[in-house]
Design brief:
Blueprint (H helix, E strand, L loop, with lengths): L10 E3 L4 E7 L5 E8 L3 H15 L13 H15 L9 H17 L9 H13 L4 H20 L6 H6 L23 H7 L5 H9 L1
Antiparallel strand pairs: 1-2, 2-3
Length: 212
């Protein structure tokens, strides 16, 4: 499986005040492209054009009336498909975790303007996750992935920078203070299983198990 291209960031070149983007080259290194004055509508439009040409991903532009949560999620997901891959090119377990985390977000707030998504909205997504029967630790991990989606959107100039910071103000579920279930503790393997398994281990692993 070939890796999908990651979406390069919209960057500031401090000496000139220009926006730029660094496009990875197949043999290593980067092709540096300047886009115009940093933060200007023209530079953001040029950034979207360059990214679409380089990756095939069309980024919504805030200057064109803003974008919905669905559009942010789609762009983030396309980035994740190219990023969360193992050495063999196959998706990692993190990709599935992100997919599951984004479903409740899209279900409730997909058509909401992403720039308007607030901590109370995130709390509603958290409550939906609890109602789905997910454990406290799973809910907290998936809410963190939702925040990561908005952090990525801020970095790519899709939504205002204060959106991610505001979402960080929502605390996760705390043990004993939520109706979400707790995961069962991981118990040690019984001695009988250890004894049967030891002869099949390598000498080094057998010594490590014996020490523990």
């Amino acid at each position: 499986m070939s890796r999908k291209k990651r979406i390069p960031g919209y960057l500031l070149h401090k000496p000139t005040g220009l926006a730029r983007v660094l496009l990875p080259l197949p043999g290593g290194g980067y092709d540096e492209k300047y886009l115009g004055p940093y933060g200007s509508p023209e530079s953001r439009a040029e950034y979207a054009r360059v990214i679409a040409e380089f990756t095939g991903v069309a980024l919504p532009s805030p200057a064109s009336g803003g974008c919905s949560v669905n559009k942010v999620v789609l762009a983030f997901w396309q980035h994740c498909e190219g990023y969360y891959l193992g050495p063999d090119g196959k998706p990692t377990s993190e990709l599935m975790g992100i997919k599951q985390a984004l479903r409740p977000l899209r279900s409730r707030f997909g058509e909401t303007p992403a720039a308007d998504f607030c901590p109370l909205n995130l709390k509603a997504v958290l409550d939906d996750m609890v109602r789905l029967g997910w454990s406290r630790k799973v809910v907290n991990a998936r809410i963190d992935r939702v925040r990561r989606c908005f952090k990525w959107a801020v970095a790519h100039e899709m939504i205002p920078g204060n959106r991610y910071e505001s979402l960080r103000t929502l605390t996760g579920l705390r043990k004993g203070r939520t109706t979400a279930s707790e995961t069962e503790p991981v118990l040690p393997v019984c001695q009988a299983v250890v004894s049967v398994t030891l002869p099949h281990m390598t000498p080094t692993l057998r010594a490590m198990v014996g020490l523990q």
